Each structure stands twice: as structure tokens, then as C-alpha cells.
Amino acid sequence: MPSFAAFLQSPPLTLTAHEALSGVFGSISLASWIFLLVPQLVENYKQGSADGISLAFLTVWFIGDITNLIGAIWAGLVPTVIALAVYFCFADLILISQCLYYNLLNARKARRRSTRSTFGEAAEEPLLGRRDSNIGLPGSHRRTSSGASGRRRDSVTRNGLPSIEEEEGGHKEAIKNALSIVGVCMIGAAGWAIAWKTGVWQPTPVEEDNGGVEVALGAQILGYASAICYLGARIPQIIKNQRDRSCEGLSLLFFMLSLLGNATYGAGILFHSVEKEYFLINLPWLIGSLGTMVEDATIFIQFRVFGNGEQSSAIA
């Protein structure tokens, strides 16, 4: 039996550049989706809140993953694709459950604080003292907001420009995100190389893809329904960011991984073949992946304009 090292030096099939790029891009996309939700889960945990992310966004996205799973089963796709679709659904449920937990927990805390302050003020403060405590103080409601928001505003200078500490924190965050993206790309590329060398992954001839393979109509309909859900999911988040004029509580890396996953997924399909029949079969998934990149770019612009609400708070 030849050694494992010798086996790695003799791959089972030769590859064209297009096949190799298709495989690498597909593997990077897969790595992006596997790690996608981790940054937002960590962000919610650090904040102790899920106020920044729209539940409507997650719910519509979850519906998209459900229809994607049913469509994959209906179309009789390979088991790995179905297993990944199941993984995506479970990952969605974990993030949705975390958001619901923090929303309920913080709502209960807010009710307790409201009850305590109402009865405490009624028993201890004079009526006149309560009435004029905030009279003639513009912005008094902002000043009595949470200490965390107050500390964030303290980190911004009077002319609305970030302080040195704020800029350093932004640079560190940018470096961390860039290294994370590079790491995911390396993991995806290494995973593909290992899969190819060991024979787990092999290029599929284009003729087999276009050789009369017919996808069930119901599966195609579910594919388009999934694409519509993916396209519509980000709209509630964009509206929420615009309404709050803040992206506080959102993980930028979460959307960067989403953009990377969608871009490499579409590239993997297109590098494999641009034949008309193959293109039309994969059109729903191309629409769902490449179309959402425009919406991700919109959210990136909102991050740039609004940030965490610090600059707008300081200027207001």
C-alpha cells in the first residue's frame, strides 16, 4: 500500500483552471456559511442584548433556509448538500432562540425597573420635585439613558470626531475582521485541497450536469421561493438601521462573511459552467446569492454612516 504522502502527490484527476477555481470558491463559500452566525452570537452575548438585530430579518431568512432544505430533498441533491441545509436551519434556530431569550430577559428587567421607579418615586419624592426635575433641561431624557450609552458618547469629542481611543478600537476591530476573512478563505481553500487530493471531491464534467438532468418543477419553485426570502430578509434590518440611525448590536463580521459566502458561491457556479441549461438550473440560487450582495453593501454603507450611533448622538 502506498504511503499517504505518496497518495497526496498523485491526485486522482487532473484539473483545469476553471474546475479548480470552481472547487476552491465553493469550499470557501461553505466555510463562510459554517462560521457565519458565530460573530453575531458572540456580539449578542457580549452586549447581553439582541436589540440590534431584527427578528423579522432572522425569521424570513429561516423560512428561506427551510424552503431551501425542502427543495434540496425534493430535487434529490447529494447528501452533503442536504446535510448542510439541515445545519443552516439549526444554526438559524440557535440565533433566533438567543435573540428571543435576551428580548424576554431584558423586557422583564425593564418592567421591574419601571415598577420600582414608579412606586419608589410616588412614596419618596414630592410632587413639585418630580414635576420640575427635568423642566428647562434640553436633552434630559438622553442624559438619563443607560450608562453604557453615556460612556459611548463620552468617547466622542465635542466636534463630533472620534477620540484617539475610539480610532484605535476601530483599527483593531478592522484588523480582527480582515484576519477572520483571510482565515476563513484559507480554511476553505485548504479543505478543498485536502478533499481533492484524497478523492473526496472530484470535478463533475459539464456534460453530466447538462445531460438531460431534469429538476422537479416543485423543487424549482421552492428554489425561487428561497431566493425571494433571502432577498427580502435583509429589508427589515436595513429599515431598522435607518430608523434607529445606528448599527449598534450588529456584528460587521457577520455581514462580511455573508458577502464572502454569497460572492464565492456565485463564482463557484459560474466558473464551473456558463452553459445556458446549467445556468438556468442554478438561476434561483444565483439570484439568492448574488442579489443579496447589493443589500449587504447597503448595510455596509449604514455601518459607515451610522456606526454604533456614537457620532450621531454627539452631534445631536
Automatic annotation (TrEMBL):
Region Disordered, annotated ranges: 130-169
UniProtKB keywords: Membrane, Transmembrane, Transmembrane helix
InterPro entries in alphabetical order: LAAT-1, PQ-loop_rpt
Transmembrane segments: 20-42, 54-75, 81-104, 178-195, 215-233, 253-271
GO cellular component: lytic vacuole membrane
Molecular function terms, GO-annotated: basic amino acid transmembrane transporter activity
Catalytic activity: L-histidine(out) + L-arginine(in) = L-histidine(in) + L-arginine(out)
Location relative to the cell: Membrane
Topology within the bilayer: Multi-pass membrane protein
Protein name in the entry: PQ loop repeat-domain-containing protein
